[in-house]
Input
Amino acid sequence: MTPSTNPAAFDLARYQDPLTIQRVLHTAKTVAVVGLSKNELRASHFVGYYLKRHGYRVIPV
Output
């Protein structure tokens, strides 16, 4: 079965479109951060901190 005939196939091109990415980033208010760390020296900690500071709900994964 090819991706075009498989209804469960993931449309990767759709999620690489800059307008789609921009829309998601402007409308999402909850973000899951994979590898979120409590260690303040890790980049993932800063990412979570930044998102929370800007009004996002952060879910550590």
